[in-house]
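Quick one:
INPUT:
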């Protein structure tokens, strides 16, 4: 079991505020619901801007209703004009108009940290981003990000390269991912299910860090990407540097997956267990 440590709120004496900008998952395992759980479980205060309402469960996505951009903008104004947001996590944005609206407000308010999870497909394989919006994502939003967190299919969509089938393929994608404009990239290797370990590449402009954890085999992986990126934003808001924030978050998601089978949610890919400790806020050690 991981050691228990207290949250680090070095940016201020108050609990840091993290904004998640994402879609709603009606089953509660991914999207805005997973984000709020992860931010809360890792010791920060979560607020939200909803970009789309999905009709979704553990078996798949049956409908997506994008929120009109003017209402996304009103939500963003309401949050940024009142709350001292330390970090922003961006998830599902649905279409190019919403992407442009979010990018405009991030440029206006300039939050200290921006983590973008380039959500394009659900765990079930259902598309969550219109193909026409990929260009807007790459041109308007990714250059504003301190970190983007693509999985392997998303990395392929962003670079035009084939989906990696092994660690060598992942490494060959590094140069192209550096061209996205983001300050750093976390390329997640979770889809390489044949590997004993789950290896991620944290790509900086001048070097790359290999982050590894023992692979945990579970069908209950709904919302893993949302959860990881939200935890990273939470730890950044608390004053950790990027490598520390990613390392802590990888340990957190590993434990959330390891405890996922304690839940019995749905008939398909169930959610991870965000609150695997039920007696307060706990942080995994490195």
């Amino acid at each position: 079991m991981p050691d228990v440590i207290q949250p680090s709120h070095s940016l201020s004496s108050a609990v840091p505020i993290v904004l998640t900008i994402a879609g709603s998952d009606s089953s509660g395992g991914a999207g805005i619901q997973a984000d709020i759980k992860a931010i809360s479980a890792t010791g920060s205060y979560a607020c939200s801007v909803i970009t789309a309402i999905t009709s979704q469960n553990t078996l798949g996505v049956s409908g997506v209703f994008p929120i009109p951009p003017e209402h996304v903008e009103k939500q963003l104004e309401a949050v940024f004009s009142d709350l001292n947001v330390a970090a922003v996590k961006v998830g599902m944005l649905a279409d190019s108009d919403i992407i442009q609206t979010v990018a405009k407000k991030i440029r206006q308010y300039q939050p200290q940290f921006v983590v973008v999870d380039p959500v394009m497909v659900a765990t079930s394989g259902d598309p969550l981003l219109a193909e026409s919006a990929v260009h807007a994502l790459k041109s308007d939003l990714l250059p504003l990000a301190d970190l983007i967190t693509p999985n392997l299919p998303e990395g392929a969509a962003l670079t035009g390269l084939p989906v990696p089938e092994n660690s060598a393929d992942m490494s060959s994608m590094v140069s192209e991912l550096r061209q996205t404009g983001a300050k750093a990239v976390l390329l997640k290797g979770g889809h390489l299910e044949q590997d004993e370990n789950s290896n991620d590449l944290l790509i900086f402009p001048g070097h790359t860090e290999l982050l590894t954890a023992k692979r945990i085999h579970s069908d209950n992986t709904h919302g893993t990407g949302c959860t990881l990126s939200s935890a990273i934003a939470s730890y950044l808001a608390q004053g950790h540097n990027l490598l520390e924030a990613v390392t802590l978050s990888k340990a957190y998601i590993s434990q959330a997956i390891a405890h996922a089978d304690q839940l019995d949610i749905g008939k398909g890919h169930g959610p991870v267990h965000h609150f695997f400790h039920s007696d307060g806020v706990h942080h995994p050690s490195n």
